[in-house]
């Protein structure tokens, strides 16, 4: 066991944990004020649900040896998971710490998908869906990619979760959003507090450094490359988004900057430890532009439900990043991977990356639909007319984020 690596991963785990509260604020500022707490609760409650689901079964079927499709049950209930290392899973750090680091990835994935159904899905059915999603979608894909499953044997690579985290959550969020949105009005609400969104965006941005750099599991040359690439990609994604926004709308919005930065971060995630700095810039700029086009042009034209653009940023950015990894991956940067298209002219690597991404898209879409249909057979998924009118905060949680009406009445009584 290496204590330096252990301390390093411990700090990165805390940074990744910070992403979920950060995303809750990012999403919370984008919705109507009457639904702000419900939106925050969807992310914060994910911490609770994922913790227990991951502890009981998720970690085991993700990382125990098992077969090409699903891990085994050696680690059920965190059995055999302690301070000791695992030569095959965590050779440098305690297995329990590795387990927690991976738990944070699963938690932020759930938080991401909640953006597609913000203000539209009833809370209890959402919590049920989260538990089932971890077991039947996230954990199998994690095993395919990182647990020795068929995607890793195919030769596809995913440095820090472009496929495992972003494609699964983005696609699942889209399918769930469309299913819930059928029959409901297509309404575009103005964000109620972009400063809260800014604070949340900053926390997610900061946490991403733990997300990508920690995926090296030691602070070595690869970790340093991924750190630089992650810093570069955030700015490059924002640059790509804002350039296109200005060209089409003659504005450069704060929300555009934050969305572009997240798009760049998503796009670089599968490639962060595999590409050089210039490649990171190109990947992130394409990610920012691609996500902008999907959200502001394609989504507007097709009118599908993706409330806070979880699919537009994470699903689309994840697919772009996975494919572009095959274009720019460099053996010189990381000797664990072969050279990509720009070095060899061979499309084989891209086809492998594309096959893995498309398989994850199809699997996530089909299983999400099945889980949602099963839950729907017992209880409605969509919010009621009363909840839409009054707000989810008051009805579901018995709380309000703001007290504008009460404050105005007090001011009138006091003649302020």
How are the secondary structure elements laid out?
Blueprint: H1 3-28, H2 36-63, H3 95-114, H4 123-146, H5 150-154, H6 162-181, H7 194-213, H8 221-249, H9 254-268, H10 277-302, H11 310-328, H12 341-344, H13 348-376, H14 385-390, H15 392-397, H16 404-414
Helix pairs in contact: 1-2, 1-3, 1-7, 2-3, 2-4, 3-6, 4-6, 4-13, 6-11, 6-13, 7-8, 7-9, 8-9, 8-10, 9-10, 9-11, 10-11, 11-13
Explain what the structure shows.
- The chain has 416 residues and is mainly α.
- It has 16 helices and no strands.
- It has helices at 3-28, 36-63, 95-114, 123-146, 150-154, 162-181, 194-213, 221-249, 254-268, 277-302, 310-328, 341-344, 348-376, 385-390, 392-397, 404-414.
- Helix 8 packs antiparallel against helix 9.
- The longest helix is centred in the middle third of the chain and has 29 residues, at 221-249.
- The protein is globular and about 55 Å long.
């Amino acid at each position: 066991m290496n204590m330096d690596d252990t301390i390093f991963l411990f700090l990165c785990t805390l940074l990744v944990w910070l992403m979920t509260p950060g995303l809750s604020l990012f999403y919370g500022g984008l919705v109507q004020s009457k639904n702000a707490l419900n939106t925050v609760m969807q992310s914060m409650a994910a911490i609770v649900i994922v913790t227990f689901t991951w502890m009981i079964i998720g970690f085991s079927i993700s990382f125990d040896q098992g077969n090409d499709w699903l891990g085994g049950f050696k680690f059920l209930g965190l059995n055999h998971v302690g301070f000791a290392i695992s030569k095959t899973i965590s050779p440098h750090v305690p297995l329990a710490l590795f387990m927690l680091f991976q738990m944070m990835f699963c938690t932020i994935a759930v938080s991401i998908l909640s953006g597609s159904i913000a203000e539209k899905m009833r809370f209890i059915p959402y919590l049920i869906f989260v538990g089932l999603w971890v077991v039947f979608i996230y954990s199998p894909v994690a095993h395919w990619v990182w647990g020795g499953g068929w995607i890793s044997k195919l030769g596809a690579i995913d440095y820090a979760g472009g496929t495992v985290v972003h494609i699964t959550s983005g696609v699942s969020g889209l399918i769930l959003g469309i299913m819930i949105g059928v029959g409901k009005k297509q309404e575009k609400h103005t964000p109620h507090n972009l400063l809260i969104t800014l604070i949340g965006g900053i926390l997610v941005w900061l946490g991403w450094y733990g997300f990508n750099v920690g995926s090296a599991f030691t602070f070595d040359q690869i970790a340093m490359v991924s750190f630089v690439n992650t810093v570069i990609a955030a700015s490059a994604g924002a640059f790509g988004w804002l350039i296109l926004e200005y060209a089409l709308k003659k504005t450069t919005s704060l929300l555009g900057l934050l969305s572009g930065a997240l798009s760049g971060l998503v796009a670089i995630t599968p490639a962060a430890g595999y590409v050089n700095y210039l490649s990171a810039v190109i990947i992130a700029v394409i990610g920012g532009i691609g996500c902008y086009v999907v959200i502001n042009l394609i989504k507007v034209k097709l009118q599908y439900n993706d409330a806070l653009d979880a699919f537009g940023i994470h699903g689309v950015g994840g697919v772009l990043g996975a494919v572009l990894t095959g274009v720019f991956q460099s053996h010189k940067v990381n000797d664990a991977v072969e050279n990509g298209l720009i070095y060899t002219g061979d499309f084989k690597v891209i086809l492998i990356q594309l096959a893995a991404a498309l398989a994850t898209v199809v699997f996530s879409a089909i299983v999400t639909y099945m889980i949602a249909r099963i839950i729907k057979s017992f209880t409605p998924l969509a919010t009621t007319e009363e909840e839409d009118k009054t707000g989810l905060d008051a009805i579901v949680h018995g709380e309000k984020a703001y007290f504008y009406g009460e404050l105005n009445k007090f001011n009138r009584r006091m003649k302020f």
